UniProtKB/TrEMBL annotation:
<dbReference type="GO" id="GO:0005509">
    <property type="term" value="F:calcium ion binding"/>
</dbReference>
<keyword id="KW-0106">Calcium</keyword>
<keyword id="KW-0130">Cell adhesion</keyword>
<feature type="domain" description="Cadherin">
    <location>
        <begin position="271"/>
        <end position="385"/>
    </location>
</feature>
<dbReference type="Pfam" id="PF00028">
    <property type="entry name" value="Cadherin"/>
</dbReference>
<dbReference type="Pfam" id="PF01049">
    <property type="entry name" value="CADH_Y-type_LIR"/>
</dbReference>
<dbReference type="GO" id="GO:0000902">
    <property type="term" value="P:cell morphogenesis"/>
</dbReference>
<dbReference type="GO" id="GO:0016477">
    <property type="term" value="P:cell migration"/>
</dbReference>
<protein>
    <recommendedName>
        <fullName>Cadherin-12</fullName>
    </recommendedName>
</protein>
<keyword id="KW-0812">Transmembrane</keyword>
<keyword id="KW-0677">Repeat</keyword>
<dbReference type="InterPro" id="IPR020894">
    <property type="entry name" value="Cadherin_CS"/>
</dbReference>
<feature type="transmembrane region" description="Helical">
    <location>
        <begin position="616"/>
        <end position="637"/>
    </location>
</feature>
<keyword id="KW-1133">Transmembrane helix</keyword>
<dbReference type="GO" id="GO:0005912">
    <property type="term" value="C:adherens junction"/>
</dbReference>
<dbReference type="GO" id="GO:0002009">
    <property type="term" value="P:morphogenesis of an epithelium"/>
</dbReference>
<dbReference type="GO" id="GO:0016342">
    <property type="term" value="C:catenin complex"/>
</dbReference>
Amino acid sequence: MLMGNCLLLFLWCLLDKSFVSPLHSSSQSRMGKEQHRNLMAHRKHGMMGVHRVKRGWVWNQFFVLEEYMGSDPQYVGKLHSDLDKGDSMVKYTLSGEGVGSIFTIEPSTGDIHALRSLDREEKPYYTLRAQAVDVLTGRPLEPESEFIIKVQDINDNEPRFLEGPYSATVPEMSPVGTYVTQITATDADDPTYGNSARIVYSILHGQPYFSVDPKTGIIRVALPNMDREVKEMYQVVIQAKDMGGQLGGLAGTTTINITLRDVNDNPPRFSKSIFHLRVPESSPVGSSVGRVKAHDLDSGKNAEVEYSIVPGDGGSMFDIYSNKNTQEGTVILKKHLDYETRKAYTFKVEASNAALDHRFLHLGPFKDTATVKVNVLDVEEPPVFSRLSYSMETYEDTPVGIIVGAVTAEDLDVGNSPVRYSVEWRKDSENCFDIDPVEGTLSVSEALDRERNTEHNVTVVATKVNNPLLSSKVTVTIKVLDVNEFPPELAFVYETFVCENAKVGQVIQIISATDRDMPAVEHRFYFKSPSQTRNRNFTIRDYGNNTAGVVTRRVGFRRLEQSMYLVPVVVEDGGYPIRSSTGTVSVRVCTCDTDGSLFSCNAEAVFFPMGLSTGALMAILLCIVILLVMVVLYMGLRKHKKKDTLMSSKEDIRDNVIHYDDEGGGEEDTQAFDIGTLRNPKGIKETAQLQKIRSEDEPNQASVCMPNEDSEDIRAYIHHCLLENSTPPYDSLVTYAYEGEGSVAASLSSIESWVLEPKEEYRNLCDWGPRFKTLAGIFKEHECKDTEKTENEAHTEALNDRLD
């Protein structure tokens, strides 16, 4: 092979003799070489001119074998230039990858050698640069040329499975040719050179169960009806060989672990045909009796077994539960057992697969049956009552000691022990009954009252004499029957109405009744009118359904004659003895429309027979009110006019009213306020002036008010006037209205009239007694003011005269 490679290299060099670098264009290389040849010719021959020079050798790559094992450096190739005449005037240089460490060149000859062994899988080629220079001048004779030294591949790497070992699964009972998995091997050798990387697959171990495709590495089932239950795991060894599987090629192997996946191709099977179980008769409902198991050779869901009891005589007492974890069937108790009634039970249990595969139904039914025999074990039990519960009745007036009823219990065991009875005492309920410990008869021990407790629940305990620890209980319900004690009564206080235009037989009210007694059956009430009285207006009609109606017996009612009727009603019950009571229904007479609808039951209904409407009645009432107001005003005006007549005289001194803000000093107090000041705001200043004048004239008042000889006659006259009934007393309070400052007429009160008649004498008032002392002072103040005013006018006139 080495000789063949060298021959190919030699032929290639003969065909291509140009000494041009692959990285330069041919035109540039040609021009450089021609110039170089001309220069060399001129140097050697001493002649000028242009001569055609022969081209040098051209190369682009060399080959070197990998994994060279010789002792001498491996010869790679030779560099040579046409300018080299063999006179040792040309020197060859080499640069690039691995120069000096891997590759070396003989400067004078251009021979290239590899100093060590190379591996193509580490580096497939090297790029180097070569140049020919003049030995004397050191100038390059040709441009630098680049070339490649390629490491030639040899078959030194075997195929390898990078992901092995492999695992795969395939369903059991699969047909021939079923795909299992695919494996792939890789070869590091050059796939483009020779057959070093061409791989062929073969099976070394695993036949005749599986096969492999030589080119693709696909593994398939080669044997039909492989059963997982016979063998589940298979180990297959696959070989991958290069060189196309030829002799001398390198090979690699891997292992594939193939598992057969389970399918439901096996039915469940019981290990035995009969299962014997035992259970005590005292076992509670729901307790476990025993277990049965059917085996299924499949796995996973295909091995899940469901158990059921085949309908039959003994299967009604039991049930079966399927345990998916253990694949067992647990027989549980469905009803209570009684050894004395039945000592053994036999039934069949069926086991079947939950998930079926239709491809294998032809193999037979996927279920199995077995017989289960259950023996009941005898257990000593407490006494058993003849009933689960007892119900009794008695009247509430039953005397103490009377038997109400009896309970019965017996021992069903073989020993048949005697039984004793007792009543379970409870704090939260009344214990009104006793029991005979031997006979089991219940009797009344306390007085009963149905209205307080209608039902009694008594717990009776039965105990075995041979074994007192064994006892049982039963509930006895005793209903207290009612004795008719209370009379029935009307359900409500009935108040209804009847129209004035009512007709005979008209129902005006439906009534019902209640009764505090509680009979065993529903109440039955009877209604009627009292027999001792005859009602011509109303009667009672019993409807027979515990209701009755109040019915009219005549036509027309008049509210003016009678507005209210009281209808007696007799109510009887259906108890024994019969109880009755009398109630009353109130019936008002009202006015209704023509269709019988209620219009009014008020007082205005009296006017309806006269044909007056509500609006007319309101108008009449309004007129009456207006008349009353006018009468009141008229009487008030007359009274006021009479008072004005009494007080109209100017000589009447009672037109001044003295008002005191405090208790005062009685009749001797003269420091009072003029009522005119209180009524007229303009009188405030005048009142102040009068008080000032009064204080100045106090020394003169003594002389003014001295009694004279006529005082006795005046006192007698005043006393006579006070005794008259027609004349009001002088100390009466008379109120005068003040017109106000804005009035044109000014005040109308006589209190404002301060000017006295010239002929009036006020000094004689002091002779009338202490009551007129204050009045005399007031007149004196007015006289002083008039005098002062006259003097001022006279003084003014005098001044005017002087000025004139």
